Amino acid sequence: MNQLIESIDQELLPKLQIESPDTHNPVVVHVVPAPWQLLGTGNYAAVFCHPDYPDLVVKIYAPDRPGFEAEVEVYRRLGSHPAFSECLHAGKNYLILKRLHGVTLYDCMQRGLRIPKQVIQDIDQALEYARERGLYPHDVHGRNVMMLNGRGLVVDISDFLQEETCSKWHDLKRAYYGLYLPLLSPLGLRLPYWVLDLVRHSYRLFRRLTEKRKENRRAVRQDSLHSRFSSLRRMKP
Predict the structure, then answer these.
(1) Which of 1, 8, 65, 135 gives the lowest tally of CB atoms within 10 Å of its CB?
(2) For the segment 5-58, what is each residue's pLDDT rounded down to a tens digit?
């Protein structure tokens, strides 16, 4: 572990070029020093691996992006669970994590890989375990969960301290049972990434419009209650 930390501090971080121009899209990595490899990117951070440490990954936050301290706390609460990674070390702006191998459900759709019910059930159970630990599963979607040997894994837990309601996993399950199982799974279709991205962006737009309508309805109800209260006050002798 000490050698890996030294490699991160002296080789990876000084030469790495990473930025997050848009909080709603993945960070951009411009330069990765050899022999480090980029595994994936999220909206605030990127994940890297080193060939000498195949069972570990390093998650590095982009400059000026929040969430690092919160993610450390989430991993502390989760402890050890087969569906989650574990934090083995926390540096200044990076985490050394146990590597989870598998294929995201997003990539399963692109490859035409069958997603069994057990995967969905495993993730459900893992999220319930997180709730029992005082966490709030948030931002759980097809790119943040994986399948390995027919079992489900949760990859990204960085937003599990956010208490507001998040319906992404609930909506994904509705699509899985209502659309994927009866229609897509029997056909074994491979959906190109442009189709998946179109679905992802359309879903975001739908959720924004839905939340906007809810806010408008709440505002109308509040205005109505205020008007009734004002009328009652005027009616008092």
Answers:
(1) 1
(2) 999 999 999 999 998 888 777 889 999 999 999 998 888 899 999 999 999 999
Return the CATH class of domain 2-98: alpha beta
Q: What is the phi/psi pair of residue 227, to 5°? A: -65, -45
Fold designation for 103-187: Transferase(Phosphotransferase); domain 1 (1.10.510)
3-state secondary structure 10-35: HHHHHHCEEECCCCCCCCEEEECCCC
| Domain regions of the chain by residue span | 2-98, 103-187
CA distance 173 to 113: 17
Task: Count how many residues are written for the chain.
Answer: 237
- Whether the pTM exceeds 0.90: the reply is no
